[in-house]
Amino acid sequence: MTLLLIVIGALLLDQWLGEPRRAHPLVAFGHAAHWLEARLNRADPKRGRRAGLLALALAVLPLTALAAGLDYGLRAWPLVHGVVSVLILWLAIGRRSLLLHAARVARPLQQGDLTAARAAVAMLVSRDTAELDSAGVARATTESVLENGADALFSALFWYLVAGLPGVVLYRLANTLDAMWGYRTPRHDRFGWAAARFDDLLNLVPARLTALGYALAGSTPSAVRRALHCWRSQGSVWKSPNAGPVMAAGAGALNVSLGGGAPYHGQWQERPRLGPADCPAEATHIEQACRLVDRTLLIWLAALGILWAILTLI
C-alpha cells in the first residue's frame, strides 16, 4: 500500500508542479556528464568503449549508492522516508512536461501555423525539423509521446516498484546518459556504446509492459487487436529493441502510420514503417497519443492496486 501511495503522490505532484523550472538535479547531472565526457572521450577509437564504460560507472554508481544509503537510512522514519520517496520519484518522471510539450505542437498545427509547430517539435525530437510538412511534424510528435511515455514515465515507475529509490535513480541517470551519449555520431559511436546498451538493458522489461499497456488501452476491441498485431509483426524491425515494440503497439492502438524516412543531422534516414499503412499522422493523433499514455497509466495503477489487494489477502 505504501508503494501505491508514493506512486500516486509523485504523480499528483508532477501534475501540480510539473518539472522544476530551476535547479533540477538532472540539469546539474547533465553538466557533470558533459565535464566527464570532455575529459574521457579521447580520439583513440581502441579505447572509446572502455572510456565510455568508465564514464558510465563514474557518473551513475556514486549517486545510486547515495540513493541506496538514503533509502536504507530513512526506513527508521517511515513518514520521512515516504516524503523523500515521493520527491525523488517526482523528479524522475516527466508526464506533465511531455504532454505540455506535445500540446505546444498540436495547437499551432491545428491552427495551420506550421512554422510555430516546427519550432515546438524541435524541442522534442533529435531529427531535423525545418523542412517537415504538417504530417511529418504530427508523426514526429506522436512518436515522441509514445517513446518518451515509456522512458520518462513507465520505465521510471517500473524501476521504483522493483528496486525502490536506488532503482529509479539508477534508471533515470542511465537514461539521461543515453540521451546525451547514445548517438551514432563519430564522437559518440564508441564512447556512448556502454550507456546505450545499459539503457537498452534497463528498458527491456518495462518497454514491453508499456507496449502491452498501450495495446490494452486501445479505445475499441479492434484497436487492441490491431495494436497487438503491429507489436508482434513490426516491433522487432525497428533499430531500437525497446522503442520498436512501444511505438508499433502505440501506432496500432492509434491507427496511425509512424516511422518511415526522416532527416537526421543533415542526412535522410530510411526507417521501417510502423502501424497500419496509408494512415498519415495528423494533429489529432498527437492528442490521442497523450490520452493513450494516460489510459495506460490508469491500467498500471489498477494493476498495482489489484496486486496489493492479492498480496494483502495471502
From TrEMBL:
What is the gene name? cobD
Q: Which GO terms describe its biological process?
A: cobalamin biosynthetic process
- Report the main location listed first in the record: membrane
Give one Pfam hit by family name: CobD_Cbib
Recorded GO MF terms: ABC-type vitamin B12 transporter activity; threonine-phosphate decarboxylase activity
Q: In which pathway does it act?
A: Cofactor biosynthesis; adenosylcobalamin biosynthesis
In its UniProt entry, what is this protein called? Answer: Cobalamin biosynthesis protein CobD
Its localization reads:
Cell membrane
